[in-house]
Amino acid sequence: MKNPRKSSGNIMRKYYQLFLVIVCFVSIITLLIYRHEYYRLRYVLEVLNFFGKPGLSEIEFCGPGFNATMLSEILRNSSMEVRETPPLFQEIDENFYSYSSFLRSYHKYEKLSQENAHNIDTIVIGKANVQPNFRCNIWLENSLKPRSGRFNFKIISESDKAFHLYIFQCSLTKNLGKPKGVSFYVNDYNINPINAPINRVIQVNTKRKTREKTNIRFVNNIEPAMCVIPNQVPIVSRDAFIEFLVYHHMMGVNFFTIYDSMISEDIIRRLNLLPPDITQWSIQFFPLNYPFVFAKSYNMVRSAIELDCLFRHFRYDKEDADKASHAVVLSWDEFLVPRIHNNLKALLDDFDPTRKVRSINVKPLLFCLNQYDDDNAEIGYPDIMKKTHYFKLPQRLTSAYVRNLDSMTTFNDIFKLNLTIKDIPLEILGVHKYTECRDPKVYLSGGVGYNETQMQGFQHKFEGAMLKFGQSLVSNKIYRLYTSGQIWEKVSSENVRDML
């Protein structure tokens, strides 16, 4: 009589254990689903918080019709300082991604000729081993139906084995109205072109009026603009962010266009607290949504951003006051450091007085942040002032190019950046790259670079050009507002001038 009870008890115990396993399994699945939905909701909330209140319905924001054109409207209504259509990577197909589009034939609407009335250039990154074969549509104002355009393309850069930088061109031979968008789709009549993502076009000038020639040289005629991209590891500290802006502002740069999604809205809001008569700079923020492995396609993304930067600055006529005469693309860890001059305006005026050099090649120098501090550097100086030896390591460095917009009279000149190129000697100007040096072949989870003993074993040379700007940087009003710690603690209702 006892054995059946034991057998029955064992069976019940096994069912009970099976029930617990099933409950546990279902709980884990439910938890994973909850976690997934939580992160999706968190991501949407972060986007809403990052871009501000969009004023669009949930369906419009998250639905299938959401594209870069809608995001443009969101950004325009946000608290960010975005005053133009932002460039955004959008998938044309699995091999090509469009970035930004520029309408260059629409100069004065009432004087358009019927032949080649509209020409839209779109920056595209695509795989090098695939031939582009697309059709295009041009969307017009006050029209719900697009017009079929003529598609063409040209390769701008072949520096990357995996990717090429293209310009996709879409043109209309008749003046049917003012274009507001362009879309590309696979050359297949079975595919509905209405579903293709739309790039909002940005109007640019077809020609720029040149300055009147004079024997008198004015340094103030030079207005350098700087377009900033993320580092190869796309994280920048708040200290490095402020140091970069303040230092280059000291060098005479007043126009900054920042392509970076890692800059928080809090930093942007704090920057807006600074009185404009103290900063006297113009800063434009654009998000950067790269659809590739960033480190592997870094140079190609940088080339695309440079092209976007030049397109945007070319659109301004030289008769407009205070528009850029030169443009350069740098990452947050790169600094243009003059050897003789105290600012870039005087340097460029001396190096190219006739303004005929299209591109100036500035050679890079690598300064490792994990080297010893210089004994002559003052206490309280930032790290960029304390590292005075540049190293020759096997890692490849990219030159910086100062592009002369004054030498470009037509829009097509942007595609001829190497027409006249001149190297500037390191004795005059260099681009200092400040980063922690590490062995790229060895992965360390802690992110630790070479130790100080290893650093001494590498070939290096003293370069103290940055030291001469140390006192000017730490005494700068903007920098003092930041390092005092008060501007990041004070609220917008308080007077920032009290901190000077």
Automatic annotation (TrEMBL):
Swiss-Prot/TrEMBL keywords: Membrane, Transmembrane, Transmembrane helix
Source taxon at top rank: Eukaryota
Transmembrane segments: 15-34
Protein name: Glycosyltransferase family 92 protein
Natural source organism: Chilo suppressalis (Asiatic rice borer moth)
